[in-house]
Amino acid sequence: MHHMKKYFTEGLIQFTILLSLIGVRVDVDSYFSGYFSPLIETDGGPSSAFIQTPFHHYRDTAAGHQVHPKCPELDYFFTSRRLLNEVRALGSPARFPTRVSAWLVHLVPDDGSDAGEPLDLSGDPDDEEIDADNHREEDDHTTGEGFGLSVSQDCTVSRPSCAAGELSKEETLLNRVNEEEEVVKEERGREDTSPASLNQLTQSSALEQEDLLGSSSLPPPLSGLELPPRWQDFLSEFDVNFSSCFPYLEAELPNPISYDVSLQDAMVSRGDSANSRPASSRTPLFRLESTNSSHSDPSQSSAGALPSSLFCLSGNSSRNNTSPSQMGGYLDEAVFEHINMLDLGNLDTIDPQMLDGMEGDMDTPWLEDSDSGLSLESSSRSPASPSASSDSFCDDEGGATGYSSEVESLSSKGGACAAAYRDWSPVNLVEYIWHDHTYSTPQAQNSTSSSWFTAIKQEVMSEDEAEPEEMSRDERRVQALGLPFSAFQIVNMPVENFLELLDSQNLSGSEVMLLRDIRRRGKNKLAAQNCRKRKLDTILTLQGEVEGLSVQRDALLRQRSHTAKALSAAAERFETLSRTVLGQLRDEYGHPLNAEHYTLHCSANGRVMVQPRTNTASRTMTGRKTMKRKKDKKP
DNA sequence: GGGCGCTGTCATCTG
DNA sequence: CTCAGATGACAGCGC
């Protein structure tokens, strides 16, 4: 199960990369570097789960037993961060030559009969590769039909000046895409949908389209969708009909397209490119339009919550019997929001539902937590702990040093506590607490005190078959007091209930102090865990920021370099052109003008004048001297 | 046996 | 003043 989640996490990130490349913006950073990362429970209010969720409950295994923090089963926790760093590193060519060639190839139906069939997920494992070889990419381009997304770390940013043929090819493609968009617009207009959001979500793909259109080659067709084995496994786990998830891959892309763009460049230059292009050229190339065949098979839509929402972005449209152009014609903000809401933290709630059917042989829920919070199962702290020796309760009990003696002495106090203890069986706290992630707000927390008492007692009584667990020091103390509450409950119950407990149980002063210490220690334990988790998150966030700034710096440096090269090339072309023009001109004696002595000057009104080069130089020098004099006079 | 990381606990501060 | 939370510091434990 953990492999499943780890696998899913990696797959999700890779899928996010692909979505980003085809224009669907998915905020990955917010998932992993934000305060409320997906691997952290989300905020749920003043006593949120984030606050009270032990950090290390994620380290628990499916069997529920404790694992060491260094256990490899923690990998899935850190895998997301590692992958994120790798994704970030993709944009930095200075670090390592990496290229991700991810191909999404669509079928081009000949007669339309194939449009609804699921895409062939069998793919060549070489289609996704991390390879520094530049020539492999070209090979990939020549083998496939459809559109390929190739992230090349070593590809250049500046687009080479297009030849006339390339331009015509681009324009043709643009026109075709525009025509398709017009058709879709007309359909949408007839069906009275919100036109404002028509192109909204395709704007993000404008850059990719432009880069795509501006890139070099159009690969020949390839039938079938080729995915790397990891993707096949990843998708096959959820039984997702990929064609239903990306129907536009089949129907909306008659022209196979490929483009090479650096991932970083795609991110950095998105705004520039989008602004530099005329609006008319921003044609939505990738549409998320539902087809009739998307959900022809109801079982295909029965995947887990995440696949149905993540992959089948247009699934709800057809399920709700709305027309494809209404709901699935384009991605809308809700879809983006949904994607953004799909942080990995939701896996905690998704996976049990989704994976139950897939891994029925797993006896123990993987969500089971163990070593966390109050260390209710066990406490490695020896009785000789300093805190134990300083415990007021021990002092009051006549210097009892061992916990067993404490328990005995307390248990021997008899009275109501002992009677209550006889009627109360210990709670299997592992089962009772850590399976419920709402433990931050106990079930009866919001109820009245008496009902809260009753609810707790009933729950405690229902745990008759609970196996005795190795309990912590405080837990044993609570049991010794004969209270019908666990240490966890004492820690997490509202203060009103806690005070009522203190009053209602006829506790002595030392016992009250013990309960207060238990409550304080338990709360502080959670606070310490949160504090450490927060500190770790802060460090990771800062590391991510450093990484991002480094990538940004690299991009700016590259941009500066390219700008300088472009400027130099323009100057060179101007010089060549000037020499050519001057060579055609004659002075009053019929001699051709010497380019060494004359230059062309383009004025603002478009006039081109021939000026003596020496005069310009001298005038420039004169101007500089004038400026210098002015500067000297100023102080 | 020492280093290191994790964890619990205490003391203290803040809201 | 009480309470809850945050955080630095310290110590114990396991690897």
From TrEMBL:
Chain spans, region Disordered: 114-152, 173-198, 270-303, 355-407, 614-635
**Entry-linked Pfam families:** bZIP_Maf
| Listed Low complexity bias regions | 372-392
Q: Where is the composition biased (Basic residues)?
A: 625-635
- Where is this chain compositionally biased, Basic and acidic residues type? 132-143
Where along the chain is composition biased (Polar residues)?
A: 272-303
Answer yes or no on keyword Zinc: no
Ranges for domain BZIP come to: 514-577
GO molecular function terms here? DNA-binding transcription factor activity, RNA polymerase II-specific; RNA polymerase II cis-regulatory region sequence-specific DNA binding
Keywords carried by this UniProt record: Activator, DNA-binding, Nucleus, Transcription, Transcription regulation
Identify one Gene Ontology CC term for this UniProt entry. nucleus
Superkingdom of source: Eukaryota
> Which SUPFAM superfamilies does this entry report, sorted A to Z?
A DNA-binding domain in eukaryotic transcription factors
Composition-biased stretches, type Acidic residues, lie in 358-371
Q: Which family does it belong to?
A: Belongs to the bZIP family. CNC subfamily.
Q: State what protein this is by name.
A: Nuclear factor, erythroid 2-like 3
Task: State the organism of origin.
Answer: Cyprinus carpio (Common carp)
